[in-house]
Amino acid sequence: MGNVNLVSGPATYRIYRWLWASLDWLFPPRCAGCDTPGNRWCPDCVRKTTRLPAGIGADEEIICPSCGAPVKLPGFCVRCQETPPAYQAVRSWGEFGGPVRNAIHQLKYKRDIALGDALGQHLIDLLRVLGWEVDIVVPIPLAAARRAERGYNQAALLARPIALALGLDYSPGAVLRVRETQTQVGLNLIERQKNVKDAFRGNTKLVRGKSILLVDDVMTTGATLNACANALQAAGAVHVFALTLARAIADPERR
Fold this sequence. Notes:
By secondary structure, the chain is of the alpha/beta class. Helix content is 39%, strand content 15%. The chain is globular, with a radius of gyration of 18 Å.
Protein backbone atom coordinates (compact mmCIF):
# COMPACT_ATOMS: atom_id res chain seq x y z
CA MET A 1 0.00 0.00 0.00
CA GLY A 2 1.45 3.36 -0.98
CA ASN A 3 1.74 6.55 1.06
CA VAL A 4 0.99 5.08 4.49
CA ASN A 5 2.43 6.83 7.52
CA LEU A 6 2.81 4.22 10.27
CA VAL A 7 4.72 6.50 12.63
CA SER A 8 2.61 9.60 13.35
CA GLY A 9 -0.28 9.71 15.79
CA PRO A 10 -1.04 7.95 19.10
CA ALA A 11 0.05 4.34 19.56
CA THR A 12 -3.48 3.00 19.08
CA TYR A 13 -3.73 4.79 15.77
CA ARG A 14 -0.35 3.48 14.62
CA ILE A 15 -1.54 -0.07 15.34
CA TYR A 16 -4.78 0.63 13.50
CA ARG A 17 -2.89 1.79 10.42
CA TRP A 18 -0.45 -1.11 10.64
CA LEU A 19 -3.33 -3.60 10.60
CA TRP A 20 -4.78 -2.10 7.44
CA ALA A 21 -1.34 -1.99 5.82
CA SER A 22 -0.85 -5.67 6.67
CA LEU A 23 -4.13 -6.57 5.01
CA ASP A 24 -3.04 -4.68 1.90
CA TRP A 25 0.15 -6.72 1.76
CA LEU A 26 -1.87 -9.92 1.99
CA PHE A 27 -4.61 -8.78 -0.37
CA PRO A 28 -3.20 -6.15 -2.78
CA PRO A 29 -5.85 -3.45 -3.27
CA ARG A 30 -7.11 -1.64 -6.33
CA CYS A 31 -7.91 2.06 -6.26
CA ALA A 32 -11.59 2.74 -5.57
CA GLY A 33 -11.47 5.81 -7.77
CA CYS A 34 -9.88 4.44 -10.95
CA ASP A 35 -9.32 0.69 -10.36
CA THR A 36 -5.53 1.01 -10.71
CA PRO A 37 -3.75 -1.73 -8.70
CA GLY A 38 -1.51 -0.92 -5.75
CA ASN A 39 -3.52 1.55 -3.65
CA ARG A 40 -6.93 1.68 -2.03
CA TRP A 41 -7.06 5.36 -3.04
CA CYS A 42 -4.30 6.43 -5.39
CA PRO A 43 -2.41 9.77 -5.55
CA ASP A 44 -3.71 10.41 -9.07
CA CYS A 45 -7.33 10.28 -7.89
CA VAL A 46 -6.45 12.63 -5.04
CA ARG A 47 -5.07 15.13 -7.59
CA LYS A 48 -8.13 14.78 -9.82
CA THR A 49 -10.54 15.55 -6.98
CA THR A 50 -11.67 19.19 -6.88
CA ARG A 51 -10.67 20.42 -3.44
CA LEU A 52 -13.01 22.70 -1.56
CA PRO A 53 -11.74 25.73 0.40
CA ALA A 54 -11.43 25.51 4.16
CA GLY A 55 -11.74 29.27 4.59
CA ILE A 56 -8.30 29.54 6.18
CA GLY A 57 -5.79 32.13 4.96
CA ALA A 58 -6.01 35.31 2.90
CA ASP A 59 -5.54 33.50 -0.42
CA GLU A 60 -8.47 31.14 0.12
CA GLU A 61 -11.72 31.50 -1.80
CA ILE A 62 -14.30 33.42 0.24
CA ILE A 63 -16.83 31.06 1.80
CA CYS A 64 -19.71 31.26 4.26
CA PRO A 65 -18.15 30.76 7.71
CA SER A 66 -21.08 28.57 8.71
CA CYS A 67 -22.03 26.21 5.85
CA GLY A 68 -18.86 26.63 3.78
CA ALA A 69 -20.66 27.64 0.57
CA PRO A 70 -18.72 30.00 -1.74
CA VAL A 71 -19.89 33.61 -1.45
CA LYS A 72 -19.03 36.77 -3.38
CA LEU A 73 -18.48 38.96 -0.32
CA PRO A 74 -17.20 38.10 3.17
CA GLY A 75 -19.96 37.04 5.55
CA PHE A 76 -22.73 34.50 5.84
CA CYS A 77 -24.56 33.23 2.77
CA VAL A 78 -28.21 34.16 2.21
CA ARG A 79 -29.48 30.77 3.37
CA CYS A 80 -27.56 30.90 6.66
CA GLN A 81 -28.66 34.49 7.25
CA GLU A 82 -32.32 33.60 6.74
CA THR A 83 -32.20 30.32 8.66
CA PRO A 84 -29.08 30.03 10.84
CA PRO A 85 -28.06 26.36 11.13
CA ALA A 86 -27.64 24.64 14.48
CA TYR A 87 -24.01 23.73 13.73
CA GLN A 88 -21.19 26.25 14.16
CA ALA A 89 -19.48 25.28 10.91
CA VAL A 90 -19.29 22.51 8.33
CA ARG A 91 -16.46 21.86 5.89
CA SER A 92 -15.92 19.26 3.17
CA TRP A 93 -12.68 17.96 1.70
CA GLY A 94 -13.67 17.69 -1.98
CA GLU A 95 -16.44 18.18 -4.50
CA PHE A 96 -18.67 15.15 -4.99
CA GLY A 97 -17.84 13.87 -8.46
CA GLY A 98 -15.31 11.88 -10.46
CA PRO A 99 -12.94 9.64 -8.49
CA VAL A 100 -14.21 10.59 -5.04
CA ARG A 101 -17.77 9.79 -6.08
CA ASN A 102 -16.58 6.36 -7.25
CA ALA A 103 -14.75 5.83 -3.96
CA ILE A 104 -17.76 6.77 -1.83
CA HIS A 105 -19.90 4.41 -3.90
CA GLN A 106 -17.38 1.63 -3.19
CA LEU A 107 -17.39 2.47 0.52
CA LYS A 108 -21.19 2.52 0.81
CA TYR A 109 -22.36 -0.19 -1.52
CA LYS A 110 -19.44 -2.53 -2.28
CA ARG A 111 -18.43 -3.36 1.31
CA ASP A 112 -14.96 -1.88 0.75
CA ILE A 113 -14.58 -0.99 4.43
CA ALA A 114 -10.81 -0.46 4.18
CA LEU A 115 -11.59 2.76 2.33
CA GLY A 116 -12.72 4.34 5.58
CA ASP A 117 -9.10 4.45 6.69
CA ALA A 118 -7.73 5.65 3.33
CA LEU A 119 -10.33 8.38 2.79
CA GLY A 120 -10.41 9.38 6.45
CA GLN A 121 -6.82 10.64 6.17
CA HIS A 122 -8.09 13.67 4.25
CA LEU A 123 -10.52 14.54 7.04
CA ILE A 124 -7.77 14.17 9.63
CA ASP A 125 -5.58 16.61 7.68
CA LEU A 126 -8.50 19.00 7.19
CA LEU A 127 -9.37 19.05 10.89
CA ARG A 128 -5.76 19.79 11.76
CA VAL A 129 -5.81 22.75 9.37
CA LEU A 130 -9.11 24.06 10.72
CA GLY A 131 -7.96 23.84 14.33
CA TRP A 132 -11.44 23.25 15.72
CA GLU A 133 -11.40 22.30 19.39
CA VAL A 134 -13.67 19.29 19.78
CA ASP A 135 -14.11 16.65 22.47
CA ILE A 136 -16.10 13.89 20.78
CA VAL A 137 -16.19 12.50 17.23
CA VAL A 138 -19.67 11.29 16.25
CA PRO A 139 -20.71 9.63 12.98
CA ILE A 140 -24.12 10.48 11.52
CA PRO A 141 -26.27 7.46 12.48
CA LEU A 142 -27.55 5.29 9.67
CA ALA A 143 -31.19 4.22 9.41
CA ALA A 144 -31.72 0.81 11.00
CA ALA A 145 -32.95 -0.81 7.80
CA ARG A 146 -29.98 0.43 5.77
CA ARG A 147 -27.58 -0.51 8.58
CA ALA A 148 -29.00 -4.05 8.64
CA GLU A 149 -28.78 -4.33 4.87
CA ARG A 150 -25.27 -2.89 4.60
CA GLY A 151 -23.81 -4.32 7.79
CA TYR A 152 -21.98 -1.13 8.75
CA ASN A 153 -22.22 2.65 8.81
CA GLN A 154 -19.91 4.28 6.25
CA ALA A 155 -19.81 7.50 8.32
CA ALA A 156 -18.45 5.50 11.26
CA LEU A 157 -15.64 4.13 9.08
CA LEU A 158 -14.58 7.73 8.36
CA ALA A 159 -15.07 8.98 11.92
CA ARG A 160 -13.14 6.34 13.86
CA PRO A 161 -9.67 7.05 12.33
CA ILE A 162 -10.16 10.76 13.05
CA ALA A 163 -10.71 10.05 16.73
CA LEU A 164 -7.79 7.60 16.89
CA ALA A 165 -5.35 9.90 15.08
CA LEU A 166 -6.15 12.97 17.17
CA GLY A 167 -6.71 11.28 20.53
CA LEU A 168 -10.39 12.23 20.72
CA ASP A 169 -13.32 10.29 22.17
CA TYR A 170 -15.26 8.29 19.60
CA SER A 171 -18.93 8.03 20.52
CA PRO A 172 -21.40 6.68 17.93
CA GLY A 173 -24.06 6.58 20.66
CA ALA A 174 -23.94 10.35 21.24
CA VAL A 175 -26.77 10.89 18.76
CA LEU A 176 -29.37 8.26 17.86
CA ARG A 177 -31.81 7.96 14.99
CA VAL A 178 -35.20 7.59 16.69
CA ARG A 179 -37.40 7.69 13.61
CA GLU A 180 -36.98 5.90 10.31
CA THR A 181 -36.73 8.22 7.30
CA GLN A 182 -36.86 7.70 3.58
CA THR A 183 -33.70 8.09 1.56
CA GLN A 184 -32.75 11.71 0.93
CA VAL A 185 -31.79 10.96 -2.68
CA GLY A 186 -34.05 12.86 -5.08
CA LEU A 187 -35.53 15.17 -2.44
CA ASN A 188 -35.22 18.96 -2.55
CA LEU A 189 -34.15 21.10 0.41
CA ILE A 190 -37.61 21.52 1.94
CA GLU A 191 -38.41 17.83 1.50
CA ARG A 192 -35.10 16.85 3.06
CA GLN A 193 -35.68 19.10 6.06
CA LYS A 194 -39.15 17.63 6.64
CA ASN A 195 -37.84 14.11 6.16
CA VAL A 196 -35.26 14.37 8.97
CA LYS A 197 -37.14 16.70 11.32
CA ASP A 198 -37.13 15.20 14.85
CA ALA A 199 -35.49 12.03 13.49
CA PHE A 200 -32.55 12.22 15.93
CA ARG A 201 -32.05 12.41 19.69
CA GLY A 202 -28.88 13.42 21.49
CA ASN A 203 -27.54 11.47 24.48
CA THR A 204 -27.37 14.01 27.31
CA LYS A 205 -25.02 11.88 29.41
CA LEU A 206 -22.46 11.83 26.62
CA VAL A 207 -22.73 15.31 25.11
CA ARG A 208 -23.67 17.78 27.86
CA GLY A 209 -21.03 20.51 28.00
CA LYS A 210 -19.05 18.97 25.14
CA SER A 211 -17.94 20.21 21.73
CA ILE A 212 -18.98 17.70 19.08
CA LEU A 213 -17.59 16.84 15.65
CA LEU A 214 -20.16 15.22 13.35
CA VAL A 215 -18.79 13.16 10.45
CA ASP A 216 -20.53 12.03 7.27
CA ASP A 217 -19.56 10.94 3.77
CA VAL A 218 -21.44 13.51 1.64
CA MET A 219 -23.15 16.84 2.29
CA THR A 220 -25.88 17.83 -0.15
CA THR A 221 -28.16 20.43 1.45
CA GLY A 222 -26.93 19.99 5.03
CA ALA A 223 -30.42 19.02 6.27
CA THR A 224 -29.26 15.82 8.00
CA LEU A 225 -26.25 17.50 9.60
CA ASN A 226 -28.45 20.31 10.86
CA ALA A 227 -31.05 17.92 12.28
CA CYS A 228 -28.33 16.05 14.16
CA ALA A 229 -26.82 19.32 15.40
CA ASN A 230 -30.25 20.40 16.68
CA ALA A 231 -30.61 17.14 18.59
CA LEU A 232 -27.12 17.46 20.09
CA GLN A 233 -27.67 21.05 21.19
CA ALA A 234 -31.01 20.08 22.75
CA ALA A 235 -29.09 17.44 24.72
CA GLY A 236 -26.67 20.04 26.06
CA ALA A 237 -23.79 20.12 23.56
CA VAL A 238 -21.92 23.43 23.66
CA HIS A 239 -20.74 23.47 20.05
CA VAL A 240 -21.36 21.26 17.03
CA PHE A 241 -19.00 21.19 14.05
CA ALA A 242 -19.22 18.90 11.03
CA LEU A 243 -16.86 17.40 8.44
CA THR A 244 -17.80 15.50 5.32
CA LEU A 245 -15.53 13.87 2.80
CA ALA A 246 -17.39 15.37 -0.15
CA ARG A 247 -19.98 18.00 -0.95
CA ALA A 248 -22.47 17.95 -3.79
CA ILE A 249 -22.57 21.32 -5.55
CA ALA A 250 -25.56 21.44 -7.88
CA ASP A 251 -25.89 25.20 -8.34
CA PRO A 252 -23.15 26.69 -10.57
CA GLU A 253 -23.65 30.07 -8.88
CA ARG A 254 -22.42 28.54 -5.62
CA ARG A 255 -19.06 27.69 -7.14
